[in-house]
Structure formats: structure tokens, C-alpha cells
Amino acid sequence: MSAPANAVVVAGLSLFATRQPVVPRGDAGTHLTVVGVWAAAYVLALVLGLTAFPDSLAFAATAAVVCALPAAVAARREVRAG
Q1: Nearest CA to 12 among 29, 34, 30, 35?
Q2: If you ran DSSP here, which 8-state letter would residue 82 be given?
Q3: Quick check: 42 and 65 in contact, CB under 8 A?
Q4: Which residues, 6 or more positions from 18, have their beta carbon under 8 angstroms from its beta carbon?
């Protein structure tokens, strides 16, 4: 039940963030891309974690890093652009 709730929260916050007048041009597309890539990584990690690696701490740690990468890469690109 937490995955659908998480999806609703992410969608709501994404919609809120993209409608703010202080968002620079082009940021909505970047934000939606990051959320889309993160969602794909999260679903893949969830499916693999529940089916192939149910009790693997190493997989959970690796999946957490992989799920954090889209936002980290976008933040790094934004810092370099500024």
C-alpha cells in the first residue's frame, strides 16, 4: 500500500513544483525527467527486491544509491550550469 501512496505524493509535489512562478524556464522538463527516471528505478528495485533479493542487505543498499542517482545527477548539472 505504500507504493501507491508514495506515487500520489510524488505526483502531487511534482505538479505543485512545476506550477510555481519562481521555477526557471526548462526546469519543469528536467524535474519531470528526474521523477520519471527515479520512478522507473524505484519500481525496478522494488520488483527485484521482492522477487530475486528478498533478504539482501547489499541489494537494498545498492538499490537506495541507484534510486538516489537521478536527483543527484540533476542537482550536479544544475550546480555546474549556475
Answers
A1: 35
A2: -
A3: no
A4: 27, 28, 31, 32
Mean per-residue pLDDT for 70-77?
Answer: 94
CB 59 within 8 A of CB 53: yes
Q: Which residue has the cell 521482492?
A: 50
CB 42 within 8 A of CB 7: no
> Which CA distances in Å does 34 have to 14, 27, 40, 64, 82?
10, 10, 10, 15, 19
pLDDT value at position 1?
63
**pLDDT, tens only, 1-57:** 688 998 899 899 988 887 877 767 778 889 889 999 999 999 999 999 999 999 999
Give the type of residue at 9: V
